[in-house]
Structure formats: C-alpha cells, structure tokens
Amino acid sequence: MDPALEERYAEEVQVVDQVELSDDESDLDSNDKYQYEQVPDIEDDSDLEKDEDLATALMAVAMKSSKEKGFRKDRKAPSKTLKTKPSKVSSESKYSEGSEYKEEEGQDFKQDESDDMISESKLHKEGTESSPADDKNQPVTQVRPAVMDDFFRKFLIKVGMKKTLDSFNTEWYELSSKGKLSADYTSPVPDIYLRNQELDDNVHIMNEKVIKMQEIAAKAQGTWDKFRKERDFHRMHHKRVVIEKNKLVTDLRRLQKHFDKYEPTLNELKKKYETAMKDKMLIRLDRDKLKAKVSALEEQIKILNNENSKEKEPAIPTKSILNQTQKRAAKLPVENPPNPFEELEFDAPKAENYNLKKTFRGHLNSVSGSVFHPKKPVLATVSDDETWKLWSVPNCELIMSGEGHTDWLSGVDFHPHGTHLATSGGDQTVKLWEFKTSSCIQTFTEHTQAVWGTAFHYTGDFLASCSMDHTSRLWDLSTMKCKTTFRGHVDSVNAIAWQPYTNNLCSASGDKTVSIWDARSSLCVQTFYGHLNACNHVAVTKKGDMLASCDADGMIKLWDVRMVAEIGTIESGYYPINQICLDRTGTRLAAASDDGSIKIFDTQSQELLQTLKGHDDAVQTVHFDPTDNMLISGSSDCTFRIWS
User: CB count, 10 Å around CB of 431?
Assistant: First the structure.
C-alpha cells in the first residue's frame, strides 16, 4: 500500500478515536455534533489501482482501532453503559454493472460512527477466545444484522468522502460480481441501536414509576402530617383535661373542708328544729283543748238561750237531720228503695247540637271540679286557687264564694236537698258548707293525704270521700264523725260515686281497678279488672245498671253491674281522660281529655259522635246539667265553658 494513502487512513482513525474518547467521558445524551477532518481528495487514481484490496486495508485499520478501544475500556468501570442517539440515514441507491452510483442530494445523514466501531469491535471479539470471568463481565446485547458494505458506505457518506465512496462502490460491486469477495467481508455487523431504544424505553418507564412513587410518598407525608397534628391536638386536649381534673379535685377538697366547718352548725340547727316541732305539737294540743272547751261553753250558752226563748217563740221544725240538735247516729237503709229512673224514659241528647255558648274566667287558677245544683240552675266550681264559687246558669253571675282551704281544691258535691255543699282539697280535709249561714259548719281531718273527691248519699245523711292515702271514708253527718273506712286499694283512690238509690259505693283507684263497696258492711262486693293504667274517674248511670271508668291511657271501659262483666272499650286517643260523665239516658258519655277537648261517645255503638274544642289547656272536669240541655267543662286555662 502507498505510504501516503496509509498515512491518510491513520489520521482518519485517529479522529474516530478522539470522538470515541469524548463520548466515553461526556454525557451520552448531549446534542453536540461530532467534528471530523475532511480527507483531501486523492488526485492520483493510479494509487488506488496499485492497491490490491482497499477494503482489506480499511478492515485492518478498523480492527486495530477496535482492539485499542477495547483495551481502553477494560481499564474503566465494567458497569458503564454507553448511550448514543441513533441517527437516521435515508439513502436510495441503484447499482447495476457498469452504472454509476447516484446519491440523493439534500439528505442529512447523522450516523454515529463510534457506535459502528463498537459494534465492529464486539463482532471481532466474538471470534476470539476469552476467559470465563471476562464473559461474565461483558454485557449481552441483542443485535440487528447489518452488512459490511453498508457500514463503510455510511462512514464515507458521513465524513463527506464522495470520490472515495464512488471508487469503493465501483470496485466493491465489480469484485462482488466476479465472486472475489470472501464471506468474512460480507458478514453482518452488530447494531446496538435496538438495544439502546429498549433501554430508553425502560428508563422512561422507570421515570414514570419514580413520579408515581413520589406522589404516593407526598400523600403519605400529608397523611403523616395530619396524624401528627391530630396527635398534638389530642395531647394538648388531654393535658387540658388533666389540668381541669386537678382543679376540680382541688375545689372538691376545699368544699369538703368548708362543709366540715358547717357540719356542727347544721347539727345544732337540727336539734333546735326538733325542739321547735315538739313545742309546736304541744301548742297544738293546748289549742285543741281550749277549742273543745270553747265549743262546750258555746253549746251551753245556746241551750240557755233556747230555754229562755221557748216561752216567747215556738221552735221551727226542719226536715234535715243536720239541723236537729239531737246528736243521734244515722243509719243506712236496710232495703233499697225503688229507683224512679228505672221507669222513666228520656230522649238522648243530640251531640251534634252542642256548641260553645259562653266562656268565663271565674278563677285565678285551674278549674278542677264542677257540679250542678239538684233543683236550681246553679253551678258550683272549685279551683286550685283554694276557693269555691256558685254561679247562676246560664248567665254565670257570681252568687257566692267560699275560702277556707289552705291548699288546692279537687272535689265538690251538692247535698241532695241543695242546702249544703261539700268540698275536698290538697290540705287533707273535707269541709261541709251551709248556705243558710254562709259558713263552714264542719271540717273532717281524718285523711292523712290529699282528698280527691266527695259524694253525698241519696238520703243526705252520709258523705263519702276518697283520698291519696289509699282509703275511702264514710262520714256520718248527724254525729260529724267517720262511720267507716274502706280499705283494699293499694294505690290512691282517685274518684268515688254512689250507685243511685243503693248503699253501694264505687271507687276508681290508681291500682288500675274499679271496686264496689257495701257501705253497711264496709266490704268490697266486686272488683273490675281490665285497665292497663291508673283509673282517673268513675261514673254510674241514673238507672244504676252500668259503670263507666277512664284511665291515663285514654281508654274508657263500660261495665255491666248486674252481670259483673265488661261491656266494651272505647279508645279516645293517646291523651289521658281526666273525668267522664253520663247523661240521664246512659247512652251519651262525655270525656274530658288532656288534649284540651271534650269528646262525646255513644255507649251503645261505642262510636265518637262529637269533639268539642275551645279550651287552651287540659280539660279537668265535665258535667251534663239535670235536663241534658247544657254541658259544663272546666280547664287548666282558668276558665269554664258552657256548651249548649
């Protein structure tokens, strides 16, 4: 080979080595373009003809450079990975025997010559022997086959050696057509571009995973910060609770010491209170003794006055046993007289015709009871304001009022002759009032708790009362003493009523039962069971054949007295029924409900006929007048209303 030509090839190989070294030491992803020295044109074509094989010389130079490059890389770290950007080569050539090579002008070829050299060196090393340790350290790459002549053409095009390329193509295809090229020169050259692309894809995937992991880590960091803040908050709250607890403990100890100081004073006051109560009891006893002496003296004075006036005026006889001066014990009738209502027939009032006529605010507190006079159009009402009042009906003009109870009033009833009035209240007393003298003529105090109601016997000689002390009492009005006590209920007796023209007394109790008592023997004749809550009131028909009772569940039960059986049940609603009353026929029942309404039912069909609304609060009492033309209701709104 000509020395000048060999020197030119050596310079070209040196430029290629410099490019490879710069790639190993700099960033593989940089966009710097390689600079190559342009090989001067060969003017003397005879030098090329003298060379036996230009391709053989180029191959030898490439092998030499690849060996030197492999030696340099062995001195570096074996784990270093080379990355190069693949360049695009677009070239179309038509080769035929005797035709010239034509290159497309304006095409940009950017093939990295260093990668070709690396591939060539790896291909060369495949044929050489290597130790097992070296084989383990060498990376394994998948190559895509590329022919040797394409490799050299790309190299010559890249460095701009067009004349050399023309000469190479001419001689190469001439030798190829003659079959003078061996298989060593036509073997494929390894290409690492595919491997580099796979590595780039892996790097991209790993970068996406890193970004996702960073997002997860950021969320975990936020959650951790949130938990840390909650922990700090709860810790602060716990400290505050501990401080408050310690403060409360200190206050409790201080109050305990303060209380210990007052304990001797409290004991002393307690002893003084007990002493005062004893003195009060003794004073009461002395007062009662003096009152008895005064009463005896007053009686003696009256007797003396009567004896002195006998000569002047004769005494006026009276029918009532209350006005007799002789104090003889009255007796209950042995046989019951005939009931006049059994033979009488009345027309049932039309519930649809009842409408509100008048409203009167007659008391300062709740109106708890009412009753009609048996003979005159007079209405009596009692209230929680500790007073009772008489009103004319229907104008409701005040006739009389009475004060004497020291607590609320609950029950009221007229004497059958209409000359007296009985009231009961929360002061555990029953008072008997006389209209003639406009005063209280007797107070019964044997009950130990509040008295709920009173009722006169049809003879007018006896008065019954019921109390919260679980008992009912029968008072003899001739002697003004308790004749008998009815015991048997296990809860408060809330209402009583006499069976007309008999000696049987009906009672409704908070123990959910209704009982009938024989006043002569003081024994319970019959007990009716069926209510599921406390019984508030009981009423008896004029004929005496049916009982009606109501309870706190709003249930009304009808009982047959003769058959001792339940006739039916009326459901009035969810509110308690405070009081009930029956008309003369026994077919209409009025119920005072706790919802502020009055409900009228048919006892035969047990249907609701009419609901009267007008009160602003619970209705406590309701009554038909003796002719069934009017209905009176009293309420907790301090008013009583007339429905006509």
Answer: 23
Domain boundary residue, one of 310, 325, 352 = 310
Higher pLDDT among residues 184 and 454, named by residue = 454
173 and 222 belong to one structural domain? no
Average pLDDT for 325-339: 78
The pLDDT of residue 235 is above 80 = yes
Q: How far is CA 209 from CA 198, 202, 213, in A?
A: 17, 10, 6
Query: Mean pLDDT over residues 103-131, rounded?
Result: 43
| 212 and 71 co-located in one domain | no
121, 531, 568, 569, 577 from 512: Cα distances, Å = 115, 5, 16, 15, 14
Taking alpha carbons only, the member of 115, 181, 178 closest to residue 151 is 115
Pick the last residue of a domain from 264, 294, 310.
310
What is the chain's alpha carbon radius of gyration, rounded to the nearest angstrom?
64
Give the residue numbers spanning the domain of 514.
Answer: 340-643
CA distance 36 to 50: 27
- CATH number, residue 410: 2.130.10.10
Name the residue type at position 248. Answer: L
DSSP H or E stretch at residue 536:
strand 535-540
State the alpha helices, DSSP H only, in 26-101: 45-50, 54-75
Q: Are residues 29 and 168 in the same domain?
A: yes
pLDDT over 90 (residue 129): no
pLDDT at 88: 36
Higher per-residue pLDDT: 496 or 108: 496
Helix axes 148-159, 113-126, angle to 10 degrees: 150
Which pTM value belongs to this model? 0.53
Residue type at position 448: T
Could you tell me if residue 494 is inside a domain?
A: yes
Beta bridge partners of 513: 529
Q: What is residue 426's three-state secondary structure?
A: coil
Same domain as 493, residue 533: yes
